[in-house]
Amino acid sequence: MNSRVAGVHSMTGYGSATRDHELGRLSLELRSVNSRFLDVAFRLPDELRVLEPVLREALAMRVARGKVDCRAAVQHRGAARAQVIVRADALQALAQAQARVLDAFPAAAPLSVADCLRFPGVIDEPQPDASQWLAAYRPLVDEAIDELSASRAREGARLADAIRERAGRMAAIVATLRPRAPQLVAEFGERLTERLREAASSALGGSPVPLDETLARIRQEVSVYGMRVDVAEELSRLDIHVAELSRVLEAGGAVGKRLDFLMQELNREANTLGAKAPGMEVTQASVELKLLIEQVREQVQNLE
User: CA nearest 28: which of 6, 58, 62?
Assistant: First the structure.
């Protein structure tokens, strides 16, 4: 069995294997979809139930998360038998039963050769034991899981590319806002100062506002509010989370749960950014960030 393929894996994948064997035509099919944990379900005929622990153990070594549906089947080859073994005791019992029936119902039709051969227990059909089935299916288990893993890796690579592209757009939005943040706060402060002056002037009946009585108070209010609308800290945390998003993708492995947590943190900062927005520019940036974060979250839900 090959070692686990490095990189990010999707939880969606497919793998199958078929083999012609002296026991018949053997087939194994694996399908996986999203799940919070590793959940393996089996659809096997009774004679192949012996495969369950082998499949479960092999999948646990290669798959961290996902619902995996395992189907196995065998097409028996009756023509491959060297001989047909008829059980004489069963045939004698059947003849005795037929004689008793004919005594009671003389007009009844006697059993044909085909009827006798089809009767349960007349033909001795030895079944392969557990070790034979395990030996026959072992190569198929490895082949199907290899194909499943490769399928999940290809899908994971496509998802990772989509996430990186959106992470780059998020980083670009933050990079655009960062140098503008102090200026936006200053512009907001100027607008607020002018509104406060107009409000104070209106309260005095249109008379000019004495600067020595009100300017200090206005500056104090603007300074306090300016601290509330300063988004520098949120921008820094967004930068950190986006960088961590890229780092986790590059590290590979079972990253789905960690990235889901990062999405929550990114969304929290984007919401705070929108709530503190000192202007329309920041509000629009917050909306764009939340849209990108939601798109990434949808992709992350498919990652192992």
Answer: 58
The pTM assigned to this predicted structure is 0.70
- Which CATH code is given to the segment(s) 13-79+129-151? 3.30.230.10
User: Tens digit of pLDDT for each residue in 164-220?
Assistant: 999 999 999 999 887 776 666 655 555 656 665 666 566 555 555 554 555 555 555
Would you tell me how many other CB atoms lie within 10 Å of the CB of residue 24? Answer: 17
Strands 38-43 and 66-75: parallel
Question: The dihedral of CA 198, 203, 205, 210: what is its sign?
Answer: negative
Domain-wise residue ranges, the chain: 13-79+129-151, 88-121, 156-300
CA angle at 168 for the pair 252 and 298, rounded to the nearest 5°: 65
Measured from the Cβ of residue 278, the count of other Cβ atoms closer than 10 Å reads 23
Pairwise CA distance, residues 50 & 45, whole Å: 10
Segment 58-81 shows an average pLDDT of 84
Residue 127 has pLDDT above 60, yes or no: yes
